[in-house]
Amino acid sequence: MVQVDEADFCVDAVGLKCPEPLMIVRNRVRGMDVGETVAIEATDPSTVRDFVNFCRFMGHVLERNEQIGDRFHFVIRKGGSGAS
Q: Which residues neighbour 27 within 8 Å (Cβ) at sequence distance 6 or greater?
């Protein structure tokens, strides 16, 4: 499980399939302040591609992107300039 002290917010997307994890994270990031972080744990392999592209297109920073067993762990830092 994602560690609470690892980020300002946590999203548990275990068991969810595309596009649910991305939509949940996008909504969470929208409500965050610039510089805040969200940690995500997911099981859908497509989240790797989805979160890399989401950060690139929206100006956020993907600070963690790793797989441990069948779980994918991410930390996203909200970027500036009104990125959502």
A: none
Q: What angle do CA 31, 70, 79 make, to 5 degrees?
A: 25
* DSSP tag of 54: H
Q: Which residues are CB-contacts of 28 (< 8 A; sequence separation ≥ 6)?
A: 9, 11, 38
Annotation says 18 is catalytic: yes
Q: Check: CB of residue 59 under 8 Å from CB of residue 81.
A: yes
DSSP code of 6? Answer: G
The answer to whether 66 and 73 are in contact (CB under 8 A) is: yes
Which pLDDT tens digit goes with each residue over 15-56? 999 999 999 999 999 999 999 999 999 999 999 999 999 999
Looking at residue 70, its amino acid is D
CB 41 within 8 A of CB 34: no
Catalytic residue among 10, 14, 16, 18: 18
